[in-house]
Amino acid sequence: VEALAAVESFATVHQLVTTVKGRLGAGASACDALRNAFPPGSMTGAPKRRTCELIDGLERRPRGAYSGALGYIGADGSADFNVVIRTAVLSGLEEGGAPRIDVAAGGAPAAP
Hints:
Blueprint: E1 3-9, E2 14-19, H1 30-37, H2 49-58, E3 69-73, E4 79-83, E5 88-91, E6 100-103
Antiparallel strand pairs: 1-2, 3-4, 5-6
């Protein structure tokens, strides 16, 4: 852990940020690391795999980018990702479509 709950200050908010760096084991890829890092434990407390299954059964449609990941995997195998929160998604711009903006927010139940 390079930085644990470090305070990053911005004009209107102070954010706690933890930076974790590591090296992959032999035969592991950046995709393997990303797949095993989700669902993130920092979203609403503890949305582990079972909680995500419960949410999928209760909600009428997928959450999309909300509480997913945004980032890149470089050609050299390096990767940088973050957890997506407070994000607006613009869609419907295809020919003839009406623009639509979705903003996701909410909470999740915690399952044992």
